[in-house]
């Protein structure tokens, strides 16, 4: 099954893709996402802090803010964060250069950050039975 988009009353809904028996929801490609000055950085080592992440990205332009997301209960890094640049083109250069590069022993996954929609929760259903020809929704 190939993923596709459906537009319902001006709202775009992304349908899932199934590849090799695994279900995934694809994100818009870099070409369909407008560049912005905020990058989403995933795959961070637990030893990464804001200063080291700032140092890694500051060679591409003026970094205005760095935020690493932490677990509220344990205080440990959740493995992702955000890097804000002063200009869109600096963020674009940083994304292209740093995506897939090893940083403190782990490859980074860098993309343009999506705007958070307030008041509209994003719900991704859990699915079971993938790979045996059937998809069953669970809670």
Automatic annotation (TrEMBL):
GO molecular function, one term: mRNA binding
GO terms for cellular component: mitochondrion
CDD domains noted in UniProt: RRM2_NsCP33_like (cd21608)
InterPro entries with a match to the protein in the record: Nucleotide-bd_a/b_plait_sf, RBD_domain_sf, RRM2_NsCP33-like, RRM_dom, SLIRP/GR-RBP-like
RRM domain location: 37-115
Alphabetical list of Pfam families matching this protein: RRM_1
Gene3D superfamilies xrefs: 3.30.70.330
Coiled-coil regions listed: none
Keywords: RNA-binding
Keyword RNA-binding listed: yes
Name of the protein this chain belongs to: Glycine-rich RNA-binding protein 4, mitochondrial
Record lineage: Eukaryota, Viridiplantae, Streptophyta, Embryophyta, Tracheophyta
């Amino acid at each position: 099954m190939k993923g596709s988009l459906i537009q319902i009353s001006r709202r775009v809904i992304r349908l899932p893709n199934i590849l090799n028996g695994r279900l995934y929801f694809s994100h818009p490609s870099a070409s369909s996402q407008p560049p912005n000055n905020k990058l989403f950085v995933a795959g961070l080592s637990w030893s990464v802090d804001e200063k080291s992440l700032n140092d890694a990205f500051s060679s591409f332009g003026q970094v205005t803010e760095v935020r690493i997301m932490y677990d509220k209960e344990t205080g440990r890094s959740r493995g992702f964060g955000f890097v804000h640049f002063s200009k869109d083109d600096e963020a674009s250069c940083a994304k292209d250069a740093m995506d897939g590069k090893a940083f403190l022993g782990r490859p980074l996954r860098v993309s343009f950050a999506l705007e958070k929609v307030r008041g509209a929760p994003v719900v991704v259903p859990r699915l079971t039975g993938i790979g045996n020809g059937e998809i069953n929704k669970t809670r």
